[in-house]
Write a structure and sequence with these properties.
single chain, alpha/beta, six-stranded parallel sheet, about 35% helix, about 20% strand
């Protein structure tokens, strides 16, 4: 454990959905593997009027619900619960915030990590309250969940509010996709192998597709989602982070500033998509009633209970104007109620310059590399292979996959939740997998330009039935350039 290891983790919003689904089970996983610093205490806070015992019951219940039964041991659970305490507090109520401050003071024995698992509008006021209580300053750091704001102006306002109390190197902006094993494996694949990096450029790559597809609808989060939509909820953060890791130059080393310095260069090289370009480079969609896995599901407006112009699907054709990627389209798409759950990066290489087998009618397909992150983590490389036979009518070719299933290869290694790594990094003060302020703001600037373009061009989301791959016009986005979406 480093000297910077935190002695106290304070979770704001500790009774909320994210805490119960992800945060508490992740802390249990770290406890079970003996990775939490011995002296670390965990203080939950929220408006709910619980005491320590009530919070421990909630922790036990979420672990029972979320962690496979075979992985839960009484002794590890008890050890985690012994670390846990709870203090109710309401922002704006000075008395309850004062009591929270006293409790933090009593429990801390060194560095403190504050995790704001709340709505982003509470970030700046919470930080201001901590500052006023003398609980910011050296030896403290803060984790913020995405989205940071609603657009560039609100992101700047939030970042300004947070930075009045916490210096930038003590602000850890979470994008939980960066905690996923498969995302870090993308870096290992690119920069740990001599095979790929020489071919990772416009001379050898024809197109790149990044897809984050969900089968679910808004799942009771209708009001939140209607404020954000697919572009703000998924594209501005998750997809652009995956784009950065796919496209960035090799960093000098695997450390926070080197990695983030290369990511920001990618964001600043993205060609703007404004009013003149939106029609040819972007599609927005909204799902109507349809079927997922043979089950009828309602449309977005039915789920929401009112009319809405919010997009639940977005597809973009992006360009990175730099030497490495000049002319290579990056197709980005994300949406709800699509046919299958999938997060993947698809890279299509250029065709061979001349096929020596064409006279026999053999068709050569371009090589493809697929890095799949969800639902399972795997890497597939498709190569051309001779079809077995005597070749009396000329040699025939078939596509064959070299397939690395990461679960099979590492089947004795437990799959970790993304927050296990993110919590451990924050507790140990390692910011490599967190997002820096300038990245957040550069991403918003690009996305705001697209929203402004939609508005100027009067573009509205087009309908698509649930269970399909978005509006029909999403196909035209790729096909007019001779490409097609990987389904």
């Amino acid at each position: 454990m480093s000297d910077h290891s935190a002695s106290l983790l304070v979770i704001f919003g500790a009774t909320g959905d994210l805490a119960q689904r992800m945060l508490l089970p992740s802390l249990y996983g770290l406890q079970r593997d003996g990775l939490l610093p011995q002296r670390l205490r965990i203080l939950g806070t929220a408006r709910s009027a619980l005491d320590d015992e009530g919070f421990r019951t909630l922790v036990s219940e979420s672990i029972a619900r979320r962690v496979p039964r075979g992985e839960v041991s009484e002794s590890h659970l008890r050890a985690l619960l012994e670390r846990c305490a709870y203090q109710p507090a309401t922002l704006g109520d000075a008395e309850s915030m004062g009591r929270l401050g006293d409790r933090i003071g009593a429990l801390r024995d060194g560095a403190v990590v504050y995790h704001l698992s709340t709505a982003p509008r509470f970030y700046a006021p919470t930080c201001a309250a901590l500052g006023a209580l003398g609980l910011g300053g050296n030896g403290t750091r803060v984790l913020l969940e995405k989205p940071i704001g609603h657009d560039l102006a609100s992101a700047i306002a939030i970042n300004d509010g947070v930075s009045r109390v916490f210096d930038e190197d003590r602000v850890f902006r979470v994008d939980h996709y960066l905690g996923k094993e498969g995302v870090q494996n993308l870096l290992a694949l690119r920069f740990g192998n001599a095979l790929f990096e020489p071919l990772w450029n416009a001379r050898h790559i024809e197109q790149v597709q990044i897809t984050v597809a969900e089968t679910v609808g808004v799942e009771g989060r209708g009001d939140y989602y209607d404020e954000s939509g697919a572009m703000r909820d998924m594209l501005q953060n998750h997809l652009l982070q995956l784009l950065c890791l796919t496209a960035m130059e090799p960093p000098s080393q695997f450390d926070p500033s080197a990695v983030r310095n290369e990511k920001i260069k990618v964001l600043r090289s993205l060609r703007g998509i404004g009013a003149a370009e939106v029609a040819g480079h972007s599609i927005a969609g909204q799902y109507t009633a349809g079927a997922i896995d043979g089950h009828a599901v309602p449309g977005y407006r039915d789920e929401l209970g009112r009319a809405s112009g919010t997009e639940t699907f977005v597809a973009l054709r992006a360009h990175i104007d730099n030497w490495r990627w000049s002319g290579v389209p990056f197709y980005l798409r994300t949406g709800k109620r699509l046919p299958r759950r999938s997060t993947e990066i698809y890279i299509q290489y250029r065709a061979v310059p001349h096929s020596i087998f064409a006279h026999g009618g053999a068709r050569s397909q371009p090589n493809e590399l697929v890095i799949r992150l969800q639902p399972d983590e795997r890497i597939e490389l498709t190569l051309m292979n001779k079809t077995p036979g005597l070749d009396r009518d000329g040699l025939k070719l078939s596509q064959v996959s070299l397939d690395l299933d990461l679960h099979e290869t590492f089947e004795d290694v437990r799959r970790r939740l993304a927050y296990e790594r993110l919590y451990l990094d924050a507790i140990e003060n390692n910011g490599t997998l967190f997002v820096r302020r300038d990245e957040t703001e550069a991403a918003w600037q690009w996305v705001d330009g697209i929203f402004a373009g939609w508005k100027a061009a009067g573009m509205q989301p087009r309908n698509y039935p649930a269970g399909t791959w978005g509006p029909g016009s999403a196909l035209a986005l790729t096909e007019r350039h001779g490409h097609s979406w990987r389904e």
